[in-house]
Amino acid sequence: MDYRALVEYVAKTLAERPDEVLVESFERGAGTVAIKVKLADGDVGRFIGKAGRNIEAIRTLVRVASLRDRKRVFVDLANEAARQHEPRTRGGGAPA
């Protein structure tokens, strides 16, 4: 299955500027694939979604699609602006 094409289709559908969507796929070995998505800065928030729901749904979709091939596929954003928008994980911080 072409996971890159799947992620590209979803990203272009969500984006207001689909011509600026760039999706790259890298084989990492041992049945692992990394997919990097670069969007226009204005589309990063739409791709991530409220509380990270969109990006988590995309990751789940790709994970389910990859089960049949017995591969591990990771989807991440390549934008620097994405660091500000991605939801913070709970826990892991120092106790108050």
Task: Please name the defining characteristics of this protein.
96 residues, alpha+beta, GMP Synthetase, Chain A, domain 3, 22% strand
Architecture overview:
By secondary structure, this protein is of the alpha+beta class. The protein has a single domain, classed as GMP Synthetase, Chain A, domain 3 (2-Layer Sandwich). It has four helices and three strands. Strands 1-2-3 form a three-stranded mixed sheet, with helices on one face. A hairpin with a 2-residue loop joins β1 and β2. The longest helix is centred in the middle third of the chain and has 15 residues, at 53-67. It is globular. Residues 90-96 have low confidence and may be disordered.
How are the SSEs placed, and which strands pair?
Layout: H1 3-14, E1 22-29, E2 32-38, H2 44-48, H3 53-67, E3 72-77, H4 82-85
Parallel strand pairs: 2-3
Antiparallel strand pairs: 1-2
Please state the structural category. alpha+beta
Name of the CATH first level: Alpha Beta
Q: Into how many domains do the coordinates divide? A: 1
For the report, how would you describe the main beta sheet? 3 strands, mixed
| Oligomer classification | single chain
Mean pLDDT: 87
